[in-house]
Amino acid sequence: MDTEDPRVARTRAAVLGTAADLVVEGGPGALTVDAVVARSGVAKSTIYRHWPTRDDLVRDVFRFGAPTPVTPPAALGFEAAMRLFLHDLVGQLSDPKWARMMPALLALKAYEPAMSAVDEEMDAMQRRVSEELFARGQAEGLFGAELDHQQAIALLVGPLVFALITGEAELTTGLADAALTQFMAGLRHRTA
């Protein structure tokens, strides 16, 4: 069994937490190894042992803070499982650090190609969970194989991301429920 030394785990958590704070406070440009050393007290040599370059550290900071979608229990039907998925996503997106890190990730992705790997990993995790959920809906006869899963998840998650980025709507489970209600109404209308 692969277990990490608790001291190493604490050091990694301290460095990543400090680095995340720096990104939140000053954007990606504020994240330097020297700033992490100064604030965390972790030796520069230790940081470079775990993250050979600043880019490696930046990528891990976003991986550390990114929401991790959960797969709802198999016993739940599509609508209940999707509601649980969306509510969990609201909770994760509501984390103040992630809310402030997400715009930085979007900006970095535009001019640092290496950051697109983090975005692709996040997309792959979300896709894995959403594909499993859409398989439930298809098995329940709510829609057929022709349903564009990427477009469907955009319709469901889009309002949450919009609320997070713009602040124009409050990011709540009520917003998630409204998105799901509208999506389900659209499905029922298509089959009627």
Report on this structure.
It is elongated, with a radius of gyration of 19 Å. The protein folds into two domains: 6-64, Homeodomain-like (Arc Repressor Mutant, subunit A, Orthogonal Bundle); 67-191, Tetracycline Repressor, domain 2, CATH 1.10.357. The model has no long low-confidence stretch (mean pLDDT 86). It starts with 5 loop residues before the first helix and ends with a helix. By secondary structure, the chain is mostly helical. It is 73% helix and 0% strand. Helix 5 packs antiparallel against helix 9. The chain has nine helices and no strands.
Q: What is the rounded Rg?
A: 19 Å
What is the β-strand count? 0
CATH architecture descriptor name of the largest domain: Orthogonal Bundle
Largest sheet descriptor = none
Mean of pLDDT: 86
Unreliable runs: none
Overall tally of domains: 2
Task: Kindly identify the CATH topology of the largest domain.
Answer: Tetracycline Repressor, domain 2
Q: Helical percent range?
A: over 70%
Total helical elements: 9
* Strand content bin: under 5%
Sum up the structure in keywords.
2 domains, Tetracycline Repressor, domain 2, Arc Repressor Mutant, subunit A, mainly alpha, single chain, elongated, 73% helix, 192 residues
Task: Give me a quick take on this structure.
The protein has helices spanning 6-26, 33-40, 44-50, 54-65, 78-93, 96-111, 116-139, 149-166, 173-191. It is mostly helical.
